Amino acid sequence: MARTTHRLSFLCGRLVEGSWFHLAGFAVIVVNAVALGLETYDPVVVAAGGWLRAVEHACVAAFAVELLIRFGASPRGFLRDGWNVFDLANLLVGLVLTALQEAHEDERAAVKRPARPGEPSVHEQLAALRTIIGDLERRLPVVPAQPLIRGGGGEGDRDQGRSADDRSAGRGQLADRDGAGVVP
């Protein structure tokens, strides 16, 4: 087992030392940057969104393989190199963002898709609900806010024992200074 590990480390070290390895890594960075830049233009995303996503996934896979090879070349010193830590952080952020984007798109697709065949989707139900609420707002009359003045029967324990005249005499005191009818 030790001989296999040593041999694998030796092979990874030879790969990392090759000038083509660094050129290939740089090429992947450029391709990924172009793909990410193109994703900011809506017409391009509509025309080639699937291809751009495939290129992005391929670049992330290439970055992961590159890091695995670098780790295989120097397992003990991998995290001591600042560039390796930087690349690892970028890879992890890219993986998390890609996973979140995929989850968000799946969630959006689920909202637009009906739960059962023949039923409206959640998106369609919300649109219908907005229409109903808009119709209700247009058809119902506007009712001004009335001051809340307590009086009459059924006032609870506080008014028990007071006559109707006592309660009506104290009504003027129940409103605040603005006459908004706040009851203490």
CATH class of one domain: Mainly Alpha
CATH superfamily of one domain: Voltage-gated potassium channels. Chain C
* Strand tally: 0
Average pLDDT metric:
77
Low-confidence residue ranges? 153-157, 170-177
Distance between the ends: 84 Å
Main beta-sheet strand count, sense and barrel state? none
Radius of gyration: 35 Å
Mass-distribution shape: elongated
Instruction: Write down the secondary-structure element order.
Output: HHHHHHH
Helix content: 55-70%
Number of helices: 7
Report the β-strand fraction as a percent range.
Answer: under 5%
CATH architecture of one domain: Up-down Bundle
Report on this structure:
The protein is mostly helical and 184 residues long. Helices cover 69% and strands 0% of the residues. It has a domain at 2-112: Four Helix Bundle (Hemerythrin (Met), subunit A), CATH 1.20.120. The protein contains seven helices and no strands. Helix 2 (19-38) runs antiparallel to helix 3 (42-73) and helix 3 (42-73) packs antiparallel against helix 4 (82-112). The N and C termini lie far apart (84 Å). Residues 144-184 are annotated as: Disordered.
